[in-house]
Structures are given as structure tokens and as C-alpha cells.
TrEMBL record:
PANTHER family: EARLY NODULIN-93, EARLY NODULIN-LIKE PROTEIN. It holds the Pfam family ENOD93. The gene is LOC100828402. This is Uncharacterized protein.
């Protein structure tokens, strides 16, 4: 005998699922924007400023970007 599911979803549950999906999408977009805002100036600075060009390798650049992302 097949099992039957007698639970009926309320309209509020469907609305909350849509709200959760929308929040996840907006959070992803904001994270991408924040990552770009932190990464671009660091990478440009490491290529333009003579001191940074001489003293910061790729690992140091990645650590600066990561620290900037954690602070935001």
C-alpha cells in the first residue's frame, strides 16, 4: 500500500520559501560586489606602487584580500 502524505502546505510557507530564495540570491550578489570592491584596489595597488611591487608576492596579496573580506 502506498504511503500518503496528508500534510498540506500553507500559503505562508510557500511565501517564506520564495523569500528565502530571494535573500540567498541577493546575498550572493552582494558578496560578489564586496569581493570585487576589496580585491580590485589591492591588485591594482600591487601592480602600480613600486614598494608593493617589490615586496608583496601573490600570497601576500591573497592574504590582504582575505583580511579585507573578513572585515567587511
Amino acid at each position: 500500500m502506498a504511503s500518503r502524505n496528508f500534510l498540506i502546505r500553507s500559503p505562508k510557507e510557500e511565501e517564506s520559501n520564495a523569500a528565502v530564495r530571494e535573500a540567498i540570491l541577493l546575498g550572493g550578489k552582494n558578496a560578489a560586489i564586496a569581493g570585487t570592491v576589496v580585491a580590485v584596489p589591492t591588485l591594482v595597488g600591487c601592480r602600480v606602487f613600486p614598494w608593493a611591487k617589490r615586496n608583496l608576492n601573490y600570497t601576500a596579496q591573497a592574504l590582504i584580500i582575505t583580511a579585507g573580506r573578513l572585515c567587511c
